[in-house]
TrEMBL record, chain A:
This is Copper transport protein. Mobilizes copper(1+) out of the endosomal compartment, making copper(1+) available for export out of the cells. The chain crosses the membrane at residues 70-87. It is a multi-pass membrane protein. The keyword Ion transport applies. It holds the Pfam family Ctr. Belongs to the copper transporter (Ctr) (TC 1.A.56) family. SLC31A subfamily. InterPro entries: Cop_transporter. Its main location: membrane. The keyword Cell wall biogenesis/degradation does not apply. Keywords: Cell membrane, Copper, Copper transport, Disulfide bond, Endosome, Ion transport, Membrane, Oxidation, Phosphoprotein, Transmembrane, Transmembrane helix, Transport. The lineage of its organism: Eukaryota, Metazoa, Chordata, Craniata, Vertebrata. GO terms for cellular component: apical plasma membrane; basolateral plasma membrane; early endosome membrane; intercalated disc; late endosome membrane; recycling endosome membrane.
From TrEMBL, chain B:
One of its GO terms (cellular component) is recycling endosome. Its main location: membrane. The lineage of its organism: Eukaryota, Metazoa, Chordata, Craniata, Vertebrata. Belongs to the copper transporter (Ctr) (TC 1.A.56) family. SLC31A subfamily. It comes from the Eukaryota. It comes from Saimiri boliviensis boliviensis. The chain crosses the membrane at residues 20-41, 90-115, 121-141. This is Copper transport protein. The gene is SLC31A2. It is a multi-pass membrane protein.
């Protein structure tokens, strides 16, 4: 039933405050519930809000309660998003540098007018147990974890933190992809 | 806690307080909006790659060689005005691309949050929108 998920969680801690009430579920849900918001509060907001009271961030000990803490969290999330963009670019350039083994496969294919043409395939790859590939794997794991952290931060629906993620991604792309764009022009003209 | 499994429902609140749906017509409209958002996301991905290609092709080689020299070591030469103007134009292009990147990131996260509502219609809208967007946009990538 679509209304039931509002009623499943009973709020047991009377001391902690809720995030600002303008995203309180009973204002947006379609059912009228007679103002019963004393023991039925949504622990996870489902719409965007701006606030810095009792914002839980990723880990259980990390709760933001003041504007100063929110500013610190903004900077930290901004830097995390920038680091994520830089990690992406760094992995790409590392991959390009470490691709040493180029194998050429030639195979005959039928061409027009019944002639036989030789088609050459070029494959680049890495050895499985080489250090560059292991490094790529470790960096891949770090990249996956950071991308999930950024998703979870965005999932707090806190407007300040979401803006920090977007701004950090944009700044990181601007700073790191500039170098990449320049390098790509010289080494390969088809990207 | 929010619903943790997919449900078919005509009632959902998407992303913002004012976007509350409580009728089949509203749900159909919301699915259409989410579908167009997913199409736009795929289009932006292709558009960004094409923009990068165009910028790199129109870029005079002297500016990239100069940028390489500057990143490798100190360049003692002074910029003559045509090169500094193309520098300026290229920085503007790259700034524009960064803005497009921010829009792409934000739209991607909005689509994720829409799917997080666990409403099956919205999810199908996202999937269909991604399919349509990919179908329409990716042939444009290989075009010159």
């Amino acid at each position: 039933m679509d209304h039931s998920h509002h009623m499943e969680m009973s709020y047991t801690d009377p001391n902690s405050t809720m995030p600002p009430s303008h995203h309180h579920p009973t204002t947006s849900a379609s059912h009228s519930h007679g103002g019963g918001d004393s023991n039925m509060m949504m622990m996870m907001p489902m719409t965007f809000y701006f606030g810095f009271e009792n914002v839980q961030l990723l880990f259980s000990g990390l709760v933001i309660n003041t504007a100063g803490e929110m500013a610190g969290a903004f900077v930290a999330v901004f830097l995390l998003a920038m680091f994520y963009e830089g990690l992406k670019i760094a992995r790409e350039s590392l991959l390009r540098k470490s691709q040493v083994s180029i194998r050429y496969n030639s195979m005959p294919v039928p061409g027009p007018n019944g002639t036989i043409l030789m088609e050459t395939h070029k494959t680049v790859g890495q050895q499985m147990l080489s250090f560059p590939h292991l490094l790529q794997t470790v960096l891949h794991i770090i990249q996956v974890v950071i991308s999930y952290f950024l998703m979870l931060i965005f999932m707090t629906y806190n407007g300040y933190l979401c803006i920090a993620v977007a701004a950090g991604a944009g700044t990181g792309y601007f700073l790191f992809s500039w170098k990449k764009a320049v390098v790509v022009d010289i080494t390969e003209h088809c990207h | 806690m929010a619903s943790m499994h997919f449900i078919f429902s005509d009632t959902v609140v998407l992303l913002f307080d004012f976007w509350s749906v409580h009728s089949p017509a509203g749900m159909a409209l919301s699915v259409l909006v989410v579908l167009l958002l997913a199409v736009l996301y795929e289009g932006i991905k292709v558009g960004k790659a094409k923009l990068l290609d165009q910028v790199l092709m129109n870029l005079p080689t002297s500016i990239s060689q100069q940028a390489i020299a500057e990143t490798d070591g100190e360049s003692a030469g002074s910029d003559s005005s045509p090169i500094s103007r193309t520098h300026h134009r290229w920085y503007l292009c790259h700034f524009g691309q960064s803005l497009i990147h921010v829009i792409q990131v934000v739209i991607g996260y909005f689509i994720m949050l829409a799917v997080m509502s666990y409403n099956t219609w919205i999810f199908l809208g996202v999937v269909l929108g991604s399919a349509v967007g990919y179908y329409l946009a990716y042939p444009l990538l290989s075009m010159a």
